Amino acid sequence: MLYSKIEGSGQPLLILHGFLGMSDNWKTLGTQFAADFQVHILDLRNHGRSLHSEEFSYEVMVQDVFEYCEANNLENINVIGHSMGGKVAMLLATTHPELVDKLIVADIGPKFYPQHHQDILVGLNAVDFSLKPSRNEVEEIMASYVPDFGTRQFLMKNLFWQEPGQLAFRFNLEVFNRKMDEIGIPLPEGFIFEKPTLFIRGGNSNYILDSDFENIKQHFPDSSIETIPNVGHWLHAENPTEFYQKVTSFLK
Predict the structure, then answer these.
(1) 141-194 pLDDT, tens digit each
(2) Which of 17, 219, 233, 236 is catalytic?
(3) Whether 23 is catalytic
(4) Which of 79, 172, 201, 244 is deepest in the core (most CB within 10 A)?
(5) 47 is known as an active-site residue
């Protein structure tokens, strides 16, 4: 069973984080959404506090989420997915349309994406936890490979004390090293979700281009695409106020 944080009451709203993320990234927004919905913020497989497994694909992640909904008697759900979580949400909606009421996809499209996390993975793999580094030492090592402060802080949230004096990453880095190609896989041809769908992209991000609109409409004919200006791929963290407003106006 996936680890989750549940808050609020009403129609279920599931939130699915992106690659190398975790439920904690959505804590503040989750509490805001909980004013109107029963919010379930999940840790996806091989992330956060959820199970570590050799299996890692969109199909098994969707199965995890589907089984989570069954176990918690969730029906008529709304789903928000960011980046990798958006791909999971798209596949869930197209394979289990009876489960999903409305879909919100944050800064990712259904198309294929080439690998682009290589520098981050090299930086993460450069940390030797057998040397028992401190938090500051881990960040110093990663700074050589991940110069962007915001990205580094996002990754540092995954550090935890496995035992006194021993830090570790919560995510399953070994499996990610072997299965990186899974992250960019496109939504299969002919997979269609006909219910209301909202795509939100960052104005400074290149994940959803104007040229992607036609492909999005083929898979999600009842979709709209909105842009939050002056933000990048982590649009919900960079401008949570506008992200919250766009999502709530769509869901109401």
Answers:
(1) 999 999 999 899 999 999 999 999 999 999 999 999 999 999 999 999 999 999
(2) 233
(3) no
(4) 79
(5) no
